[in-house]
Amino acid sequence: MARSLPATSLNGHVLLLNAHYMALCVVTVRRAFTMLFKRDGDEQPMAEIVSIEGGQYVSYDFDDWAELSAYRKEFEPTDHDWIRTVRFDLAVPRIIRVLGFSRVPRQQVKFNRRNVFARDHNACQYCGKRCSTAELSLDHVIPRSQGGQATWENIVCACVKCNVRKGGRTPAQANLKLICPPVKPKRNPMVSVSFDDQRYSSWKQFLDRAYWDVELK
């Protein structure tokens, strides 16, 4: 049975691996603990915690992790994020691994204004100028009047000046050129992890191995 966890302590992200230690996606701390608590029909845990210690993978179930957390709370309190429960403090795991072979459903990156702006780094895709969201608009590369659809591959950020210049024409018709062709992101563009942040440094080898083809959410 899942234990209640304080909502204010559930910020952050956890890398989810499959049974073969391949990166699947990034989940919230809340979902990670739900998976650690969940049991299958044989009362076996759905997932385990993976910690990289001395260059080796070490696996922990929830009870072992709680015991290890007590040690880390005493000797490494600033090296971890913490979840406070009534009885003890838990270090937030950074990696968990699915133990079974049932496929974890991939979640599509939401096609919305915020994610398009993030994908294009708040820069006009015609002149390259970086702008605030108030100074940017979304442009149909192929205009609706010419059959263009509202899709990842046909929507880009454009500054007001370039959008007015382009009008209801294609880039070629307006003598404009896209900096790069718009594509659907393979991961959530709103989630950016810096490996200078030691909390997520253990992810790097898994994401390099996956050639960054991992969906973040």
Topology:
Elements: E1 13-17, E2 23-28, H1 29-37, E3 47-53, E4 56-60, H2 62-75, E5 82-84, E6 89-91, E7 95-98, H3 113-119, E8 136-140, E9 155-159, H4 160-166, H5 204-209, E10 215-216
Parallel strand pairs: 1-7, 2-10
Antiparallel strand pairs: 1-2, 3-4, 3-7, 5-6, 8-9
Largest sheet: 6 strands, mixed
Shape: elongated
N→C terminal distance: 25 Å
Number of helical stretches of at least 4 residues: 5
Structural category is alpha+beta
Oligomer: single chain
Taking all residues together, what is the mean pLDDT?
80
Share of helix, binned? 10-25%
Strand content: 15-25%
Number of beta strands: 10
Instruction: Count up the domains.
Output: 2
| Spans of at least 5 consecutive residues with low confidence | 1-8, 211-217
Strand order of the largest sheet: 4-3-7-1-2-10
Helix and strand succession? Answer: EEHEEHEEEHEEHHE
What is the alpha-carbon Rg in Å? 22 Å
Question: What would you say this structure looks like, in words?
Answer:
The protein is α+β, with helices and mostly antiparallel strands. It has two domains: 7-106 and 190-216, no CATH class; 113-166, DNA Binding (I), subunit A (Orthogonal Bundle). The protein has helices spanning 29-37, 62-75, 113-119, 160-166, 204-209, and strands spanning 13-17, 23-28, 47-53, 56-60, 82-84, 89-91, 95-98, 136-140, 155-159, 215-216. Strand 3 and strand 4 (56-60) form a beta hairpin. The protein is elongated, with a radius of gyration of 22 Å.
